[in-house]
Specification:
The structure is a single chain. About 45% of the residues lie in helices and about 15% in strands. The protein is an alpha/beta fold. The chain has a single domain (about 1-260), classed as Rossmann fold, CATH 3.40.50.720. The chain has a seven-stranded parallel beta sheet with strand order 3-2-1-4-5-6-7, sandwiched between helices. The longest helix is centred in the middle third of the chain and has 29 residues, at about 105-135. It is globular and about 50 Å long. The protein starts with a helix and ends in a 6-residue tail after the last helix. The relative contact order is 0.14.
Length: about 270
């Protein structure tokens, strides 16, 4: 794995914790040059992460807001105007929520669509022309099992992840012959704070882990599987525990899956 990522410039969004943080450490150890991003309020966490990354002096930290086009453009300009060529973009940043549809403020729906779909789309559009011009590049998209199925109390997140799946599948069909590889990753439960950091329906902080979260896959284990798949240029990676059964089952009996998800206990 080291040879594949060595000296590649890789931009990771959502790098301040969880999957993004584990990915940064693994790629730094593999010799990659990193661009680490998260919102401004997480800038300190990004700078702390640099201390744990091999060859810290070769990496960059750029804080920006995925809900703001001007912020995204500013971050992209910082890189592109310096002539830096991004070899791999990892669209990892994401937020979720825990609320019934009718209890979810439309502002929460809009914010989650910006963070999980429109923001990554905008950053992709800024970097893609350079990749096409060079005739090489990879885009890695950390989606979710919920980009393939649906469960209660996550409607806005699910809608954004389904949109992300559709967009990047369409993009692949357009750029496959131009040297661009796209890997869509569909994680199941991973041991991160995504549930604790989730929005409530009114936009507050949920503050609770999901049932079984402590027994979930460690981020380091998940990242190892992702990086092996990216190296092989796989188009789709479903990395999950028993929850992947629902993905397979929906192909043969959507009605049965519909009945099962109604019984899922969520916090």
């Amino acid at each position: 794995m080291t040879d594949y990522y060595n000296k590649k410039t890789i931009w990771i969004t959502g790098a301040s914790g969880g999957i993004g943080q584990a990915m940064a450490k693994a790629l730094a150890s593999a010799g990659a040059r990193l661009i680490l991003s998260a919102p401004e309020q997480d800038a300190e966490a990004l700078n702390t992460l640099l201390g744990y990354c091999a060859n810290g002096e070769t990496h960059r930290v750029i804080s920006f807001d995925l809900t703001s086009q001007s912020s995204i453009d500013g971050a992209a300009d910082q890189i592109l105007n310096q002539g830096i060529e991004v070899d791999i973009l990892v669209n990892n940043a994401g937020m979720t929520h825990r609320s019934q549809i009718l209890d979810t403020d439309i502002k929460v729906d809009r914010t989650l669509m910006e963070i999980n779909y429109l923001g990554p789309l905008a950053l992709t559009k800024r970097l893609l022309p350079g990749m096409i011009e060079r005739g090489r590049g990879q885009i890695v998209v950390i989606s979710s099992v919920l980009g393939l199925i649906a469960t209660p109390q996550r409607s806005a997140y699910i809608a954004a992840k389904h949109a992300m799946t559709g967009f990047y599948e369409a993009l692949r069909s357009e750029v496959a012959n131009q040297g661009i590889d796209i890997t869509l990753v569909f994680p199941g439960f991973v041991k991160t704070d995504i549930a604790k950091n989730a929005f409530t329906g009114s936009g507050g902080r949920h503050g609770q882990a999901d049932p079984g979260q402590e027994a979930a896959m460690a981020p380091e284990v998940f990242v190892d599987k992702v990086l092996k798949g990216v190296r092989r240029r796989q188009e789709r990676l479903l990395i999950a525990g028993k929850e992947k059964i629902l993905v397979y089952l929906t192909r043969v009996s959507p009605a049965l899956v519909s009945q099962i998800v109604r019984r899922i206990r969520v916090t």
